[in-house]
Each structure stands twice: as structure tokens, then as C-alpha cells.
Amino acid sequence: MKKLSLVVLVLGVGLIFSACGGNTKGHETVASSTTELVTMKPVDNINTTKRSEVTEKSSTKSIQSKDKSTEEKVSNTYQLVEDFGNAYANFSSINDRNEKLKKLMNAECIKKNGIDVKTGAKLESKGEVSSIYQNDKKEYAVLLDCEQNGTKTRVLLLAKVKGNKIAEITYNSVKQEY
Predict the structure, then answer these.
(1) How far apart (Å, rounded) are the C-alpha atoms in residues 155 and 131?
(2) Structural domain of residue 56, as residue ranges?
(3) Which helix (H) or strand (E) holds 53?
(4) What segment(s) does the record annotate as region Disordered (predicted)?
């Protein structure tokens, strides 16, 4: 009996030491994180900068016409983004809003966001575009102040423009904590 308990004790101690021993192969977990910093500028400042560039480069007609066409594209894009924000801020129903948005979005964006789906949701909104920001990648942030079904809310729309149409959107409801 003593031999049996001694064997069990030795096996138990051996198991404990082998289980607690360090792993010589060593597994290493490396976690990395990358953060992309995107600088957004108010669109009004961008338009003013473009105008001053046009007046400074008045040496030849070809440069002027090129700058004017660039300025017109910027102006058209700004108008598109502003119309997009107004369509999101002012509507009598979801179907009404979606009909307005169809004119401003490309087919892929319409499909991806379900804009062509009829709905019975009762939501109405009145509001305005309070500011528009742009980064260097033709991405826009549109801040809306709205009253939706009697509740004041702020909405932040993130939009990408391709081919003078809205190609991608993200809708964010902004909540003020304090």
C-alpha cells in the first residue's frame, strides 16, 4: 500500500512540474493598431482658397480656364453635397426623402442603402445644413440640425463623391451628453 501511494505521489508531482514548466517554444501575441488621421476643413474656406489661386495665376488664358473649370467642379460638388444634406434634413416621409436622394446618388449607393425600397415608416423632418467639411479624398462631413417628429436632433452625414454623384454614405445621429 505504501508503494502504491508513493507511486501515485511521484506521478502527481511529476505531472504538476511538467504542467507548470515553462514552454520553451514560446507563443507570442503581438497586437498592433494603426490610426489614420484625417483632417477635415470647412468647405467655405476651400472655395475661398480656390478663388485666390485663380487670381494669382492669371498669366495665361489656358491656366485660367483650367482653374475656372476646377472651381466650377468644386462649386458643383459643394452644391451636390448641400442638396444631399437638405434632402436628409427636410422631408415629409421616408419615401419622400428617398425620392429626393435618388436624384443625388449613384445606382450602387441607392442599392446599398435601400433607397429604392418603399416603406410605411412615418417620419418627417425639418431642418437645415449647419456646416459642411471636406478632406483631401473628396469625402464630406455634413452636419444637420433637424426636428424629426417633434424631437430636436443633430445628424452627421459622411459622404463620398464620385462622378458628381454621392457614392457612399454613413448616417450618424449625434447625441449631446451634457
Answers:
(1) 11
(2) 41-174
(3) helix 43-56
(4) 43-70
Q: What is the pLDDT of residues 4-47, one digit of tens each?
A: 676 666 667 666 766 655 555 555 666 656 666 777 788 764 44
Hey, CA dihedral for 43, 44, 47, 48, is it positive or negative?
A: negative
Alpha-carbon torsion 84, 85, 89, 90, what sign? negative
Q: If DSSP codes are grouped into helix, strand and coil, which group holds residue 7?
A: helix
For 64-105, what is each residue's pLDDT tens digit? 555 666 677 778 899 999 999 999 999 999 999 999 999 999
Predicted TM-score of the model (pTM): 0.63
Does 52 fall in a domain? yes
Task: Count other Cβ atoms within 10 Å, centred on residue 23.
Answer: 6
For residue 109, being part of any structural domain is answered with: yes
Express each pLDDT in 108-141 by its tens digit.
999 999 999 999 888 999 999 999 999 988 899 9
Residue 2: inside a domain: no
DSSP 64-132: HHHHHHHHHHHHHHHHHHHHHHHHHHSBSSHHHHHHHHHTTB-HHHHHHTTTTS-------EEEEEEEE
- 164: three-class secondary structure by DSSP: coil
For residue 107, the one-letter residue type is A
Q: Give Dmax (Cα) for the chain.
A: 108
Q: Answer yes or no: is 74 within a domain.
A: yes
